[in-house]
Amino acid sequence: MHPILARGRRLALYLGAWTLLGLLLAAPFAAPGGLGPAASLGIALPLALVYAFFCLSAWYVARSTPLGPTGPVRLTVTALTASVISSAAWLIVARGWLQLFARGETLAQVDRAFPALRPLIFGFATLLYLLSLAVSYLLATFELSREAERRGLEGQVLAREAELRSLRAQIDPHFLFNSLHSISALTTADPPAARRMCTLLADFLRDSLALGSKDRITAAREVGLAERFLDIERVRFGDRLKIDVSGAGAGPCLVPPLLLQPIVENAVTHVLAGGTIRIALSRNAGTLTMVVENPCEPDRPRRTGTGLGLANVRARLRALYGDDARVGTREEGGVWRVEVSLPAETAMARE
User: Fold this and answer.
1) Which in 50, 251, 306, 340 has the greatest CB count within 10 A?
2) Which pTM does this prediction carry?
């Protein structure tokens, strides 16, 4: 459908502009020796509104002969041919309307004036059609530009989703590697604990697969997943590993699934001698803050590894939120602290 016909307001503005052109067209009919003002307006205004719909065809001409692929010769011939055909058709309509409108002496005046007005009407119609064609090409160019922009944004979204899928897919192998390594260590030292750890691992994987397929989950469920993971690790550490969770008020906020898990995994590696892992949530001024703290020895030997944990978290947040999210780390007073800040969203706000 023509973009002007698609909305009533556009059509009203379009016909309003053509009404003003009808007033200009009435001037030649009301020239000295011609028709009176009322008769001139009665002829010119309906003709202008009829030609307004004739000129709508310029949109389809512009769509059928786009500026880029169409050569200049064909473009010029098409524009002139369409304008001449449209003007000639309007001239025929104008003559018929004059015959219907005029009576008696007015008809005689029309018969005398029309031959002189014919070139003026034809030229006026041709000029207006070419102007409509130019506007149609501008609108078509704008539409193509918006379409290209939309496709570019779609490409960015698809690329971001692919990146997120890749980053999320890295979490499971990384986690499984660490868990299986722990189970392997327990099989000889404590077989019952190894079996219990396998059961907990199966339950955790079932929950993580169910929630990991979602785009967002609540912070409360994300913390629950982290606690399930720590329950697995507590089989290995026993009472040496303690958990402290606070900030239930921020639980309804939405976060990417499995965001805390790499951070909690890193925290466990620092608590080999025992200690408390603290997870705290807070919401302030539209920002959700998630903090994970664990004790660490300042003189501990530095562990070597893939460095996937925090890098994965940073990459996922950057892909989802850009500069609106950040991950900060620091070590102070024998405590290692990871702070994640991201926009606070809830399910109700996103609907």
Assistant:
1) 340
2) 0.52
